[in-house]
């Protein structure tokens, strides 16, 4: 397998969304500190639904994936978070596990979960992280501006001059979504060709925002006609009646988006209860209602994509290589592109 990597710039301050009273961190066993880069309204809904049934307050610490990881590193001598959910797939979780930032826990509601579904890993072998839903990396686009038969059938075709001035993708220094794009293409193309490809995408882009969802949103404002993002991002906009659709290139990353317990967090018991609930049918149904692809067959999906349909298009991702190169990719992106 060829080797390669990359990443982009992060936005300023972490946003703390308080779902209840109680201070952030500090070991209050009535508070669960919940770290997530996922859709703020959805994470708030998850926190609220959990609090309706449990005697805890949930405080959501929302920021980009790599911002949250940097925060966990800074707090490693005195961890403040309890649960981390979401990060553009398992890549940052494998890296965090290697650094001791998260620790194994088996959610009681999915303790019979197999390690893989077909060729797709759905949990860590030792439960260092647990897949909460499935994500597909692909291309959101404006069907009023781009005919379906024009769309790139491979990731390599996205570098065609046709997309200059119409493309956006997120910043790998801040976004797990973009980090996945970089790593996957460096694996596929190799170091030299991969970086040339990524530099071409950067030249073609109208903007490279920090947020993983911002490029897809840019389609709705006319700032872009095609954007790199996850399936649910496009379908959330389409569900609101906006002119956005989703296209899946051949050999694309298809991977689970995990949840994990933060090592030595101040509320271990609360973290376990929250993870159990997040992996329950109820917790998965809320995420499915936000267009995430559920892993539980008993959960009613609102997205048109199923795991069975995308499995054949999934790129083979080398977990060990990702762990070895994750940080280097972000550093090299900054040096080469900004």
Overview in brief:
The protein has helices spanning 40-53, 65-74, 91-98, 176-189, 191-204, 214-221, 231-239, 268-278, 281-289, 307-310, 319-336, and strands at residues 15-18, 31-36, 57-62, 83-85, 102-103, 116-117, 120-121, 130-141, 167-168, 205-207, 226-230, 245-247, 254-262. The chain is of the alpha/beta class and 338 residues long.
Report on the structure:
With 338 residues, the chain is an alpha/beta fold. It has eleven helices and 13 strands. The strands form two sheets. Strands 1, 2, 3, 4, 5, 8, 9, 10, 11, 12 and 13 form an eleven-stranded mixed sheet that branches. A two-stranded antiparallel sheet has the order 6-7. The relative contact order is 0.22.
Compute the CA-based radius of gyration.
19 Å
Distance, first to last CA? 27 Å
Q: Mind summarizing the main beta sheet? A: 11 strands, mixed
Tell me the number of helical segments per DSSP (H or I, 4 or more residues long): 11
Average pLDDT metric: 90
CATH class of the largest domain: Alpha Beta
Order of helical and strand elements: EEHEHEHEEEEEHHEHEHEEHHHH
- The helix content, as a percent range, equals 25-40%
Per CATH, the architecture of the largest domain is 3-Layer(aba) Sandwich
SSE-based structural type:
alpha/beta
Our count of domains comes out at 2
Cα shape: globular
Number of strands: 13
């Amino acid at each position: 397998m060829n080797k390669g990597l990359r990443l982009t710039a992060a936005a300023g301050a972490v946003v703390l969304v308080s779902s209840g009273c109680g201070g952030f961190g500090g070991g209050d066993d009535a508070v669960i500190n919940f770290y997530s880069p996922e859709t703020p309204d959805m994470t708030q809904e998850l926190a609220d639904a959990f609090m309706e049934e449990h005697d805890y307050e949930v405080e959501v610490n929302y920021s980009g994936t790599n911002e949250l990881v940097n925060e966990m590193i800074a707090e490693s001598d005195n961890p403040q978070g309890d649960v981390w959910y979401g990060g553009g797939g398992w890549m940052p979780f494998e890296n965090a596990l290697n650094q001791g930032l998260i620790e194994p826990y088996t959610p009681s509601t999915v303790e019979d979960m197999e390690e893989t579904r077909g060729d797709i890993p759905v949990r860590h072998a030792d439960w260092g992280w647990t897949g909460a839903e499935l994500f597909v990396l692909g291309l959101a686009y404006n069907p009023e501006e781009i005919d379906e038969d024009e769309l790139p059938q491979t990731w390599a075709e996205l570098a065609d001059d046709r997309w200059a001035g119409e493309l956006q993708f997120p910043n790998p220094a801040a976004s797990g979504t973009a980090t996945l794009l970089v790593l996957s293409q460096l694996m596929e193309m190799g170091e030299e060709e991969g970086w040339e490809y990524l530099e071409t995408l950067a030249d073609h882009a109208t903007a490279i925002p920090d947020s993983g969802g911002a490029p897809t949103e840019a389609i709705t404002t006319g700032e872009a006609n095609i954007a790199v993002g996850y399936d649910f991002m496009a379908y959330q906009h389409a569900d609101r009646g906006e002119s956005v659709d989703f296209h899946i290139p051949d050999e694309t990353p298809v991977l689970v988006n995990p949840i994990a317990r933060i090592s030595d967090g101040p509320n271990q018991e609360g973290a376990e209860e929250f993870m159990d609930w997040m992996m329950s049918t109820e917790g998965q149904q809320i995420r499915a209602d936000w267009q995430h692809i559920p892993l539980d067959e008993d959960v009613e999906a609102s997205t048109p994509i199923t795991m069975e349909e995308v499995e054949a298009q999934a790129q083979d991702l080398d977990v060990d290589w990702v762990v070895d190169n994750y940080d280097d990719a972000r550093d090299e992106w900054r040096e080469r592109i900004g």
